[in-house]
Write a structure and sequence with these properties.
Layout: H1 9-15, E1 27-33, E2 36-43, E3 50-54, H2 65-71, E4 76-80, H3 98-111, E5 117-122, H4 124-135, E6 140-146, H5 154-164, E7 169-170, H6 173-183, H7 189-196, E8 200-202, E9 208-210, H8 228-239, E10 245-250, H9 258-267, E11 271-276, H10 283-286, H11 288-300
Parallel strand pairs: 3-4, 3-5, 5-6, 6-10, 10-11
Antiparallel strand pairs: 1-2, 2-4, 7-9, 8-9
Helix pairs in contact: 2-11, 6-7
């Protein structure tokens, strides 16, 4: 596996300090669930315990490549493209509500007959993860919530909105790389290019665009104040979690406030906190080595 400039995933991972014992090559798979076809990458030995990874808004399963590579030695990794993202189907009804996403997760888990798994999610995937774990405690062995919570910092949400609502057809992959660097300068150019190449597609006119459903970046879709009743419900999910849970926050996150992360850990019966240095909202991309170490410490103690 390599990006279009030839740097392999394994070379890039090693350069970022990620540890792994084998150059695992993932298999690309599809499964029909809840009326849609879902794409996922499977890493590691299928006989090992399962770990499910759910990406954030406007991302896709390759967001987890470094992380999946580091945990494939011990886990059967399933990195899923959620509805409307990556190579999974776009919903014909344009239903991208949390309720629809919950039905997706439940249908995929049931169809693959998964039990006693570790569930890990970033941002949108993090909310989906703790909501699912709260409602299906018999399924989840442990939970890793990555820079997600019942409440977001408004400025961070606005930053994401400004990013996704920009012109979405550019002349080259490198033009998108320039845009990502302007939004998040923490990662080097090679790492960013290797990551987003999987989240772009070439159009018939020769331009490039994002691979996720265009309606998700339509003007005004993001950034609205959250209904207080929704916030209350999300805190209820947090408080009812039964499995060991690690809350991971980037030390420079503009999405999850320090106080919110602390409150989550206080309210989760078996909650733990990890602050990853030199990382913003996209923790595992900004500092994959620091993220790997924090999560490894948590799951090794299970």
């Amino acid at each position: 596996m390599s990006d279009q400039k030839g740097l392999s995933l394994y070379e890039a991972a090693k350069a970022s300090g990620v540890s792994f014992s084998k150059d695992w090559v993932p298999s690309s798979n599809y499964i029909e669930a809840n009326g849609l076809n879902f794409h996922y990458l499977q890493w590691g030995d299928k006989s090992n315990p399962t770990m499910i990874m759910l990406h954030g808004f406007a991302q896709q399963c390759h967001s987890w490549d470094f992380v999946a590579l580091s945990f494939a030695d011990k886990y059967n990794i399933l990195a899923i493209d959620q509805r409307g993202h990556g190579d999974s189907d776009w919903d014909p009804q344009k239903d991208y509500t949390p309720e629809a996403q919950q039905k997706d997760i439940a249908a995929i888990v049931n169809k693959l007959e998964l039990n006693d798994f570790v569930l890990m999610g970033l941002s949108m995937g993090g909310r989906n993860s703790f909501t699912y774990a709260s409602n299906h405690p018999e399924k989840v062995k442990a939970l890793v919530i990555v820079d997600a919570g019942p409440e977001n910092v408004r400025v961070g949400t606005q930053n994401i909105r400004n990013f996704v609502e920009q012109e979405d057809e550019l002349d080259s992959i490198d033009a998108f790389v320039d845009r990502v660097i302007a939004y998040n300068p923490r990662r080097d150019r090679t790492q960013i290019r290797g990551s987003i190449v999987n989240n772009l597609k070439e159009l018939p006119n020769g331009k490039w665009t994002w691979k996720y459903d265009k309606i998700l970046r339509s003007a005004g879709r993001m950034g609205k104040p959250q209904d207080p009743e929704v916030t209350k419900k999300l805190w209820g999910y947090i408080e009812s979690l039964e499995c060991p849970t690690l809350v991971v926050r980037g030390d420079s996150s503009d999405i999850i406030a320090t106080g919110t992360a602390d409150d989550m850990v206080d309210r989760i019966p078996n909650g733990h906190l990890a602050i990853v240095e030199n990382a913003g909202h996209l923790v595992m991309g900004d500092n994959p080595s620091g993220f790997e170490k924090a999560v490894s410490k948590f799951i090794n103690d299970l």
